Amino acid sequence: MNANPTIARHIYLVDDDQEDRELFSEALLLVNKSIGLIEIPSAFKLIETLDSPVVPKPEIIFMDINMPKFTGLECLQKLMASKKHKDLKVVILSTFSQQEYVDFAFQNGATNYFVKPRRFNDLIALITGALEVNYNQKAEGAKKSSW
């Protein structure tokens, strides 16, 4: 987990699969080199990281569902039940495409839900789209002062 304090925008990726984290990191570099990525290998570590005063707060959290001991959906529920973390933008990024998972994620506060793409170019497009939506929401929020 590396945080560069000179970078203004940060996103977190929570995924226990090292290869998936590396692919996401490579894709993000192609999308926007100025965004810092903090890679987190478990949902437990995400909670620790969010509670750390020295780690920058994320613009978006991309989180896998299928992680051992504490799933991404369990973590999402915990975050959204917390006054401190309920306003975080959490995007679920999972191999699970069943509607029950999608519904559960949205019912529990997910900002968006994506099935992990099989092709690298599709991952680039997914990240680009998710960041554009977040940027547009920020611009609208600045004008309207609400999300």
Question: Can you characterise this structure?
Answer:
The longest helix has 25 residues, at 120-144. The protein has helices spanning 18-31, 43-50, 72-81, 99-107, 120-144, and strands at residues 9-14, 35-40, 60-63, 90-94, 112-115. Helix 4 (99-107) links the parallel strand 4 and strand 5 (112-115). It has a five-stranded parallel beta sheet, sandwiched between helices. Mean pLDDT is 87; it is low at 138-147. It has five helices and five strands, in the order E-H-E-H-E-H-E-H-E-H. It has a single domain (9-144), classed as Response regulator (Rossmann fold), CATH 3.40.50. It has 147 residues and is of the alpha/beta class.
- Helix and strand element order: EHEHEHEHEH
What is Rg? 14 Å
- Shape from CA axes? globular
Number of helices: 5
**Overall structural domain count:** 1
CATH class: Alpha Beta
Q: Note the beta-strand portion.
A: 15-25%
- The strand count comes to 5
* Average pLDDT score: 87
Indicate the CATH architecture.
Answer: 3-Layer(aba) Sandwich
> Can you tell me the CATH superfamily?
Response regulator
**Strand order of the main beta sheet, please?**
2-1-3-4-5
In angstroms, what separates the terminal alpha carbons? Answer: 29 Å
**Class by SSE composition:** alpha/beta
